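Weekly modeling sync, notes
Attendees: S.R. (lead), two postdocs, one rotation student

Agenda item 3: backlog of single-chain predictions. S.R. asked that every request posted to the team notebook include the full sequence so nobody has to chase files. The rotation student volunteered to paste the first one in as an example of the format we agreed on. Action items at the bottom.

Example entry:
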Amino acid sequence: MKKKYSAAVLSIALIFFSCAVKKTVNTFPVPDSGISPNENSVIIEIGSILETRNGTAAQMPPWLRSYLGSGINAVEKLDPYGGKYTFIVSNEGDNDTVLEKWIEHYTVAHDFPMLAADRIEKRMYLTASLYPDDEYGAFFEAMMQNVYKTEYPEALKEDYSWIKIKTENEDGPAVKYIFYLLMTIEKNAMQVIIKNMIAKTSETVTLTKNQSNAVKKLRNTFFEGF
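Predicted structure, as returned to the notebook:
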């Protein structure tokens, strides 16, 4: 089985901030498949929130309140995002100035393709009965190479917010900030990009009959649950 790309590429993207913040989490919907279930759950005790970018916990924007309460799937059900794919990236630490810089430097051109690639890769794993590189042959690697090079000009940094929460460390009570960045893209726009990517990739690889059938199945079912 060929090595997955996502973890390595995302790690490189985070090196700049690794000394200043504790971790980054990319979250987006994944069908009920047992794949990465933690990406659909967020564990934040509302009572531990001391402050937010908007004031109190009750004043959080609806997308963040929905996310913290029910996960990323709840965000896509909100009226403003009904026709969009939503992606939420979070970063945490005790220095809010550094985290503000992280938000400022997080870009559609550089960072969104990695979020899209991670989501696309998980979808390909979901459709494959074994592993994608076994099921799809050379198509899987070629597809992922194209995915990371693809641009998404219609993706947007919609909004960001933060919460300040109570924590405990070896020295006793402490506080930390968690910043959340909401990115979106119109479903139609992203679907066109992915369909073109699948078609382009199919033209560049030689596949067996079974692999061709697997790619055809992927093409026909890709957006079910995506």
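Discussion: group reviewed the output briefly. Residues 108-127 form the longest helix (20 residues).
Action items: rotation student to repeat for the remaining queue; S.R. to check formatting next week.
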